C-alpha cells in the first residue's frame, strides 16, 4: 500500500519505509557508555572518546604563518588557504580569490 511504513521501532512510535532507515534510527536508542568529562558528548567506543578528548587539549598541527593550532591536519590545510596569495581580483569590489572559478562564481553576485 502507498504510504505504509512497515518497519516499526520497538523503542518508540516511529515507523519507516525501509529497514535500513529503521536500523539507522535504532542507533539513537543505544547506550553510549563513554562520556566526555569536558562536554556533553558521549560515544559508543572508547577509541572515539579518546580521539574526541584531544579536541579539548592537544592540537599538534601548527600554522607556520600565524599562531593558530589545529587538531586535524585537514583543518590546518584548510586554514592555510587563508594565507595564500589571491591573484584573481573582482573588478566590482575588493574581493580576491585563490582560483579563477571562485571569482567567476562570485561575479554572479554582481550580475545575477
TrEMBL record:
The keyword Zinc applies. It holds the Pfam family zf-C2H2. Keywords: Metal-binding, Nucleus, Repeat, Zinc, Zinc-finger. It is found in: Nucleus. One of its GO terms (cellular component) is nucleus. The keyword Repeat applies. PANTHER family: ZINC FINGER PROTEIN, ZINC FINGER PROTEIN 271-LIKE. One of its GO terms (molecular function) is DNA-binding transcription factor activity, RNA polymerase II-specific. Residues 7-29, 34-57, 61-83, 88-112 form the C2H2-type domain. This is Zinc finger protein 740a.
Amino acid at each position: 500500500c502507498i504510504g505504509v511504513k512497515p518497519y516499526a521501532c520497538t523503542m518508540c512510535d516511529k515507523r519507516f519505509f525501509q529497514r535500513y532507515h529503521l536500523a539507522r534510527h535504532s542507533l539513537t536508542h543505544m547506550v553510549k557508555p563513554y562520556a566526555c568529562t569536558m562536554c556533553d558528548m558521549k560515544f559508543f567506543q572508547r577509541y572515539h572518546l579518546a580521539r574526541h578528548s584531544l579536541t579539548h587539549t592537544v592540537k599538534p598541527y601548527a600554522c607556520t604563518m600565524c599562531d593558530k593550532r589545529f587538531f586535524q591536519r585537514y583543518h590546518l590545510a584548510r586554514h592555510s588557504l587563508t594565507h595564500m596569495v589571491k591573484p584573481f581580483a573582482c573588478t566590482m569590489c575588493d574581493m580576491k580569490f585563490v582560483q579563477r572559478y571562485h571569482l567567476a562564481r562570485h561575479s554572479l553576485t554582481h550580475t545575477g
